[in-house]
Amino acid sequence: MVIDCHGHYTTAPKELQTFRDRQIAALKDRSLAPAGGTLEISDDQLRESVQPQLKFQQDRGTDVTIFSPRASAMAHHIGDAQTSLDWSRHCNDLIHRVCGLFPENFVGVCQLPQTPSDVLANCISELERCVNELGFIGCNLNPDPSGGRWTAPPLTDRSWYPFYEKLVELDVPAMVHVSASCNPNFHATGAHYINADTTAFMQFLTADLFKDFPTLRMIIPHGGGAVPYHWGRYRGLAQDMKRPPLPDLIRNNVFFDTCVYHQAGIDLLLKIVPADNILFGSEMVGAVRGIDPETGQYFDDTKRYVDAATLPEADKRKIFEGNTRKVYPRVSKKLVTRVRKRTVD
Amino acid sequence: MVIDCHGHYTTAPKELQTFRDRQIAALKDRSLAPAGGTLEISDDQLRESVQPQLKFQQDRGTDVTIFSPRASAMAHHIGDAQTSLDWSRHCNDLIHRVCGLFPENFVGVCQLPQTPSDVLANCISELERCVNELGFIGCNLNPDPSGGRWTAPPLTDRSWYPFYEKLVELDVPAMVHVSASCNPNFHATGAHYINADTTAFMQFLTADLFKDFPTLRMIIPHGGGAVPYHWGRYRGLAQDMKRPPLPDLIRNNVFFDTCVYHQAGIDLLLKIVPADNILFGSEMVGAVRGIDPETGQYFDDTKRYVDAATLPEADKRKIFEGNTRKVYPRVSKKLVTRVRKRTVD
Lengths: 345, 345
Fold this sequence. Notes:
alpha/beta
């Protein structure tokens, strides 16, 4: 089985964006939208909207996608806590409906109602709702709800701890994932995403977060940002700072996905980072949508790169499935349901 | 000949920091320091202070270091334009003195008196002074004078253009190099530096800066941040955005150094990025000072990695010398002087 740990609902019906546009307009004029608001999207529209993902799964030979709302649209910097709560709930509910329509293909991960002046209570309650009521198996945690201003404390700061306590209690991981950038310095998918990955890793390297939460698990997407390429720098910095060796530091807590869009990059990742700390992911349909003229294949068809890499088959199985089952333990229950459903069918 | 394009004066006599401490204290109490201030550092102290660099050059088989003030100490976010001007002049003057004492070993590159509310006129005049009067061959340009708040416009914004006009006129390049981070999210050498490299590259990718300045040359240090590792992502983004292919986009204008501290990272860099766009650099004595227990060699002895890489000898010669002569054309005059001096000796 091949589980893709990193898929966003980037193809949602346009009604979702229409709602969002109205919600943003209402920030200036409260008469424009009712509190909360509603979405009028039919099941048929949802079915239609995820055809690209389903086709890619089939064409590329992946089975299940861990599916979350569009990351760039989370935009936690817009509006206030209520804006973010309403928006997150709608986005998460849509993911839930898609997962209900295609239980064999998608398992849900939630967006959190973060805001720059963070109200973690909302994040905790939305996480609980999504995991306990909607059957989600994880969340996307934005280390920079300010959208490129980086005004929040580091992820290792104790102000985040109440949220981590809930993650540990529910036994779900967080993917560290920023959203859109309102800072003109940072292109979202080309700079802000990758910078956030690198930044989060260095925060984890320099603090004792995982001593305080030995079972907390964080996925750093996009192949860990710059980290594997600069593994020597990070090993050296850790050594200079008397921190543990990197494999010990990340062992049970920090994982990289395989969203790296060329063979040489994947080869480096698989060579350098312990296989136990890598989860297969493609980010499809996501940041890069074109076909690589050098290969004739989609840039984000990362399964091809992993398939082609020199690596023991046992390690590939871990990366495609085993590690993801460990990091997202609730996925296995979903997959059992999936097999049962198939048997019944 | 091996030219190291990336060395900082991280071993300056403690009197330099004493001056800086006084200067910062005087920001709160103007009575504490005279305008400008003075440095009492003898030539013997300077000679003594660069012994580590000289020893590394000899031990590692490099000839000349393109030498600039300590990057993390530029700290453009501290004080105002005058603070930054005084501090930059002192730092640059020290580099000039070191280069005068060891003309065979060091060639100068200057720090710029940037500030968050940028006063480019000061940068232009200090660049002119350093190039025309002190014989410097380039500068370090900080894309984020706010020190981790990223409040300046992108490097492709027209507000930077007067400075670029001066770079072009003087025919000197800029290394894009941030300084200390006052944002607790960003560890300086582990996150802020690497993020800035990635950020600058994406700014260059998305704008027409080099159409406006066809002879402007920028060096992105630390192996180009995350860029080579994510080369497929950047190729794909460029394609999706109808931008030129990356080799065309960077050809005469954007260069990466080799400050990547492990063999696999260097191998990726040399495999992926055109050899014409890579300059040898080590950042020594710099970010990582330890010995890699896996190799028994210094992490930042990047010459070993390049030596060991599979690459035509002609390409290695470009990386070690030829490209640097092209990007920093004024270095050749310095090296002629060096050879002449040797002949006279």
